[in-house]
Amino acid sequence: MRPDVFDIVMLADWRQAGPIFWYQRELAEAALVAGYRLGIIQVDGRSGEARFGLHAWLRQKIGDREIAWLDPAASAKARLLIAVDGSLIERPLNTPLRLRSDINLVIETRYRMSTDRGAVDRLEMQFGGPVRLAAATDLIARQMPQARDVSIWRPAIDLDEAEARRAAPRGGETLVVGTEVSDPTEIDGRLFGWRHRALRLLGPKTALMEGRRSWPEGWQVDDGRELSLQAFCREIDAYLEGFSPGSNKDALCMGAIETAAAGGLVFASPTLASYLGGMASMTDAPSAAVDALVSDAAAMARARDQAFETLRARHSRRCHQERLADLIGPPRSAARHIAPAVDMPKRRALFFSTNGVGMGHLTRQLAIARRLPRSIEPVFLSMSQACGQVEKFGFTAEFTPYHSYYAGQVEHWNNHLTHLLHEMIAFYDPALLLFDGNHPFRALVNARDQHPGRSFVWCRRGLWQPGQNATALERAEMFDLVIEPLDLATVFDRGATKDEQDGVRCIPPIRLMDAGELDDRATAAAELGLDPSKPAVLLQLGSRNNYDLAPLVDRLMPALRAVDGLQIATVQWLISEQDHGWPKDVQVLSGYPIGRYFAAFDFSIATPGYNSFHELVAHGMPTIFIPNENPSMDDHVTRAAFAERQGFGFSLRRAEVYKAASVIDAISRPEIRATMRRASEQHACPNGAGMAAEAIEELVRSAKSMDATFSLDTHRRAVI
Hints:
Shape: globular
Number of strands: 27
Structural class: alpha/beta
Strand content: 15-25%
Largest sheet: 8 strands, parallel
Helix content: 25-40%
């Protein structure tokens, strides 16, 4: 097969937020507008960005086939390979790049790059050919080795869009002045002289407010998590640029460029004259400079015009396009080239889950696996006795028991599991291991140490019991990404995960089935042997392996039989350790997934485990929730109480058997069920399984930097 050929391939970490992503996006947009055929390779920067995921802009471009997403192991050719940030690839990658390019260009976008001249040699090993160096600003270029040979690729911006915004009148007797702040110490540092004047700040609002005992009057703080820098700059009249050479802040000065593009004024230190000169008023006394411009409308207009003309000369997309043309000439096609779909090499992902009391861990993994692209093959290793269900979905599954099931010693079991994980990885060669469980075992830590070139992901649901399993969070650092499917009751979460959200990608609740996959009432009833014209209740009381619900069930049955014509069905849990001896008038169902048949039932009685709870709410099923109150479980009591408080369910604890008849009488009334369904509609949310699958795909398709020195011997071994 002939390799795909591209005009340009950009190699970068596309999950970054802020100035670096802004730079990458505008460079890509400039290439697309000019008609170049563009591909991208994702590199895992391993600095926390995994929680953001690929930006929505990039996913849209890939989905529209304007940009091709290339696997690092795919064979491809490019006229120009652009690597944004050489530090991403100074170390050997887990998969040597098979991309071959005519020209290799490395653009530094961070203020400080290693002055080690060997860095260039390592980059040339990585690319298999000579490397040209560039910097996004002259400030960055001065810090780079071989500074005289470094070209400048300044940030670009869409000035056609900016032209329309600039036409709006700006300023007046009072200018809205703003700046970006990342640390409270800046307030008593660079902003000390501004504390008696109005000022608008953008930054981490909570940290800024808590970092001071008093706050200057007239200052406003905008939370950077809720308002983008671009939007902030459009709402102010003047921007105070806070970057100074020697700091590690935004060396691209994105706030200054965005403000000038929006028709605002920029004030900066004279130390930035070589970069921002012409676009900003260079001054060490910005408050006095603001006063001078406010009193002189003509001078203000000239400053705005000069800033925009400087932008046009230095920061328009045309500047990027001219640089690209100088290197590789015009695009191969005069028309805008839409990249065709690119074949992805087959990859595997190992899904490893604990058993638990129910099937939640395995079901969540199945939900994710079903939504992976065909080019990624899931392989399952599970401790659940129900893992045979995986094969019904067309996936390979292997079973291994938990040590408590054969009374084994924990240390011996961990050694066995370490060996088993190593053998599974060696045989199936997965690019990624996804663990779903409450406690990452020592064997997982061992496996991570043995296989540093593979990505490890932890999928953990929240709502842990207070004080439960807190030591497990200490192992979160070993994972490249932690995915937390949120809980509808998360506002009442009292568990250890609530305050451990750094680096965590939170997604909507994960569900196995989407609404369109569920049978209608007639079809579901026929499948289960029920009469669709009569009311029906579904009992989902879990495996009951660790909690005795028999006393409560005994009180429920007479009340259920008292409902006229009610058909009673229960789910026989696939991992139940005993037969609960249901009476003859109760139909025992053993299908999986039972959620497919929800439409056959009018209401449900269920334990509020994570999966059951969110599936029932998503379907709008009126439910009586009976918590499993074993201390080892997640917080069922809180989930059930939340359902009752929100009006879409009843909570019935085992100690409240006296309420059984009254709640069954209530839920058997059609008007009450209708009210409960309307209440559940207020909690509708998308299925997070697809988002989790996207996160897995991103890591599987990422080149990953190894913690190893990139020597010539290392390079030879990697290539061979």
